[in-house]
Amino acid sequence: MKRTSPKVGKVGIELMITGVLCAVIAAAIARFSMAGAWGLVFLGGTLYLPGGFLTVSHFDFKRGTKIFWAMSMMRLLFAAAVMLTITQSLTQA
């Protein structure tokens, strides 16, 4: 299968990083504004998922590569930020 252009991979990485940053910011503001936090979580997920698909479509996704490690860390950080937002929303209720 032919890989996509390097530009597609770079755009995918940028989208993933932006999505993770949105989720982290949502976790940070969840104590003050739950509506804004959930909006940022939705925006982060909307950016993160297509970014992951674009990144995998270009880079050779094998265990042990730097991009595999980076995507795994971003996935964990995104999940932790969303779980922190959820727990903060439950404690406010």
Please provide a written account of the structure.
The protein is mainly alpha-helical and 93 residues long. The protein is 82% helix and 0% strand. Helix 1 (6-29) packs parallel to helix 3. The N and C termini lie far apart (50 Å).
List keywords for this structure.
about 0% strand; about 90 residues; single chain; mainly alpha
Mean pLDDT: 90
SS strand fraction: under 5%
Can you tell me the overall shape?
elongated
Oligomeric state, counting identical vs distinct chains:
single chain
Helix content: over 70%
Order of helices and strands: HHH
- The separation of the N and C termini measures 50 Å
Query: Radius of gyration, Cα only, in angstroms?
Result: 15 Å
Low-confidence blocks of residues: none
Number of strands: 0
- Strand pairing plus helix content: what structural class? mainly alpha
Largest sheet: none
Number of helices: 3
What can be said about this structure in brief?
With 93 residues, the chain is mainly alpha-helical. The protein has helices at residues 6-29, 34-58, 66-92. α1 packs parallel to α3 (66-92).
What topology emerges from the helices and strands here?
Layout: H1 6-29, H2 34-58, H3 66-92
Helix pairs in contact: 1-2, 1-3, 2-3
